[in-house]
Amino acid sequence: MNYRHDFHAGNHSEVFKHALLCALIDHLQLKPKPICVVDTHAGSGLYDLESPEAMRTGEADRGIRLVYPKRTRALQRYLGVIEHFNPGGLKVYPGSPAIIRHLLRSEDRLVACELEARPAARLKEAMEGDGRVGVHQREGFAAVHAFVPPKERRGLVFLDPPFEKPDELSLAAAALNAAFRKWPTGTYALWYPITGRSQIAKFKKLLSEAVPTFCVEFLAYAKSREGLIGSGLVICNPPWQFEKNVHAICKALVPVFEECGSGYSTEWWVRPR
């Protein structure tokens, strides 16, 4: 599939992964030492939910617009971030670099990478003047190798590729395995769309077993339906007790999509030793 944020901003998979992204950053910030977040496929940062691209798919109507009124405790942090960008009503959706930047403390840092020239230019303009943020126009998987380990020695690498290539998960596994060798204590999170099981099973086999790895999948549309039915997040070196947040967030999301047969599952691919 080709996952372009302009068309899919605010859909159910964005809600799922960004709610967990907020929780990951909150966990890493429980300690006072600074963190660095490397966003490998950053996009342009902010998306107009009334743009022709967003209106063409209407996916936000079946995503953030359903979830936004549900101010449950587990979703409060994430929805508070969305509200920050929408003081006058839900009109825009922040991508991962905008969300991360909003959550940064003064001592934290964001390294945002985007290969495509147009969104990279938009992102640079949006982040201009913020010394905590560096924007780089470069390929995302190569960026993993280039920017780890960060000088802070604490933080997160967030991988959210567009899945334009059939071997995207194999490329992701190779990038992660190389990164583990350089920075074995870093936290890594990879988002993927659920379009079939074979590629996910292959990715699991390719990924190193040397790092604790937790996987969560959220199905918004378990009933028969064309298109993107759900997505997953693989978290390597998840913060201590992060699993509790995963369950709380997913349990809060399931009722929103209950009529569509929603559900979620979790699995430790490699348990902590």
From TrEMBL:
<comment type="function">
    <text>Specifically methylates the adenine in position 2030 of 23S rRNA.</text>
</comment>
<keyword id="KW-0698">rRNA processing</keyword>
<feature type="binding site">
    <location>
        <position position="114"/>
    </location>
    <ligand>
        <name>S-adenosyl-L-methionine</name>
    </ligand>
</feature>
<dbReference type="InterPro" id="IPR029063">
    <property type="entry name" value="SAM-dependent_MTases_sf"/>
</dbReference>
<dbReference type="Pfam" id="PF04378">
    <property type="entry name" value="RsmJ"/>
</dbReference>
<comment type="similarity">
    <text>Belongs to the RlmJ family.</text>
</comment>
<dbReference type="GO" id="GO:0003723">
    <property type="term" value="F:RNA binding"/>
</dbReference>
<feature type="binding site">
    <location>
        <position position="96"/>
    </location>
    <ligand>
        <name>S-adenosyl-L-methionine</name>
    </ligand>
</feature>
<feature type="active site" description="Proton acceptor">
    <location>
        <position position="160"/>
    </location>
</feature>
<keyword id="KW-0808">Transferase</keyword>
<feature type="binding site">
    <location>
        <position position="41"/>
    </location>
    <ligand>
        <name>S-adenosyl-L-methionine</name>
    </ligand>
</feature>
<dbReference type="GO" id="GO:0005829">
    <property type="term" value="C:cytosol"/>
</dbReference>
<feature type="site" description="Interaction with substrate rRNA">
    <location>
        <position position="3"/>
    </location>
</feature>
<keyword id="KW-0489">Methyltransferase</keyword>
<keyword id="KW-0694">RNA-binding</keyword>
<keyword id="KW-0949">S-adenosyl-L-methionine</keyword>
<dbReference type="GO" id="GO:0070475">
    <property type="term" value="P:rRNA base methylation"/>
</dbReference>
<dbReference type="InterPro" id="IPR007473">
    <property type="entry name" value="RlmJ"/>
</dbReference>
<protein>
    <recommendedName>
        <fullName>Ribosomal RNA large subunit methyltransferase J</fullName>
        <ecNumber>2.1.1.266</ecNumber>
    </recommendedName>
</protein>
<feature type="binding site">
    <location>
        <position position="18"/>
    </location>
    <ligand>
        <name>S-adenosyl-L-methionine</name>
    </ligand>
</feature>
<feature type="binding site">
    <location>
        <position position="160"/>
    </location>
    <ligand>
        <name>S-adenosyl-L-methionine</name>
    </ligand>
</feature>
<dbReference type="GO" id="GO:0036307">
    <property type="term" value="F:23S rRNA (adenine(2030)-N(6))-methyltransferase activity"/>
</dbReference>
<feature type="binding site">
    <location>
        <begin position="139"/>
        <end position="140"/>
    </location>
    <ligand>
        <name>S-adenosyl-L-methionine</name>
    </ligand>
</feature>
<comment type="subunit">
    <text>Monomer.</text>
</comment>
